[in-house]
Amino acid sequence: MSKVILAFETSCDDTSVALFEDDRLVSMDTASQIKVHNITWWVVPEVAAREHANAIFGVLNKALEESWKSLEDIDYIWVTMMPWLIPSLLTGITVANTLSNILKIPLVEIHHIEAHIFANFLDRREDEISYPLVCLTVSGGHNEIYYMKNMWDMYRIGWTTDDAAWEAFDKVSKMMWLGYPGWPIVSKYADDWENEKSNKGTELFPRVWLDKNEFDFSFSGLKSAVKREIDKKIREKWKLSEYDKREISYEFQEAVTEVLAYKLVNAAEKKRVKTVMLAWWVSANNKLKEKISVLAKERGLKFIYPKIIKYCLDNAAMVWINAFYKIEKNREFNLT
User: Fold this and answer.
1) Residue 102 above 80 pLDDT?
2) Average pLDDT over all residues of the chain
3) Which of 97, 117, 141, 278 would disulfide-bridge 283, Cβ 3.0–4.6 Å?
4) pLDDT digits (tens, 9 = 90+) for 122-138
């Protein structure tokens, strides 16, 4: 007999609800808060929680309507538990827990980083991913490399010592008054510069390697270098031109993606694995994927990343796939 699963994801600023029937995605709806957070150029936790509360029942109803299911059809509820913004998480947890108690059905709590890693399993067969592997996670608050011996045995081998890559993109975007979220805007400016630039490779900004043989990251110094360059151009010209914004965006993105790609592939070589994986928001960045692809091909590595853009961002489908394998394999997936 088929099982119907309801999944909630409210860890940051996307309210996402999905319904599945066994291993088939039936419906998913996601409400974005980008317009609200454009006002502050950053996600204010209390504001995000309020927006989740305002949106969650509308998103739930839409997902139910599109699936032609009712709450009485649900067999399991899965919800993101941690980590990320506590006020946002509490909205999804409260609704999921309430429905679980009312409907008297099991509630499965899912780890947010696990879910993003497992987004790579969406629209893929299990045997398409071979182990051992190393996985790079890149978001606003998290920047880590994990060694995965198998689906259930993994540990962190590298992390950011200060700021994560997504946060750096947001701050650079804010410095140039480009908008929020930063990475798609900065990346668009960078792409425009790359298309028009004839003499690439000026390297305006440093590559912060820390120790090239280790797997940790630091982007705070890079942000400071960008700020100095912006201040310099403003002193010289009294303003930052569109040309300047494109150049700075390109050089900044090159500095970030070069380090991320190198550290991931270097970790694979040091750990003697043949597969590298990318997860979380910045896995949607085409320049990062391009750089990893080139390095992986040079070194004979298989490169895996989420199949479609929406799986890179916060979404309820990744919550489902993580819990699906937990139940399917009757295993616990622990992060250390």
Assistant:
1) yes
2) 89
3) 278
4) 999 888 999 999 999 98
- Superfamily name and number for 131-306: ATPase, nucleotide binding domain (3.30.420.40)
Cα R_g (the chain), whole angstroms: 21
Counts of helices then strands in the chain (DSSP H, E): 11, 10
Question: How many Cα atoms occupy the beta-carbon half-sphere of 309 within 13 Å?
Answer: 4
Q: How far apart are CA 275 and CA 83, in angstroms?
A: 26
Q: What is the pLDDT of residues 285-309, one digit of tens each?
A: 899 999 999 999 999 999 999 988 8
Q: What is the dihedral of CA 257, 134, 270, 291, to 10 degrees?
A: -20
Task: Give the side-chain half-sphere CA count within 13 A for 64.
Answer: 13
Average pLDDT over residues 137-142: 79
Q: Which fold has domain 4-119+312-329?
A: Nucleotidyltransferase; domain 5 (3.30.420)
Structure tokens given for 71: 């709450």
63 pLDDT above the threshold of 80: yes
- pTM beyond 0.70: the answer is yes
Omega prior to 184 cis, within 30 of 0:
no
Report which of 316, 308, 271 is spatially closest to residue 67, judged by C-alpha positions: 316
At which residue do the structure tokens 């509630």 appear?
107
Torsion from C-alpha of 321, 322, 328, 329, nearest 10 degrees: 140
Nearest CA-CA partner of 208 in 150, 163, 152: 163
Is 140 in contact with 42 (CB distance < 8 Å)?
no
**CA-to-CA distance for 248 and 242, rounded, in angstroms?**
10
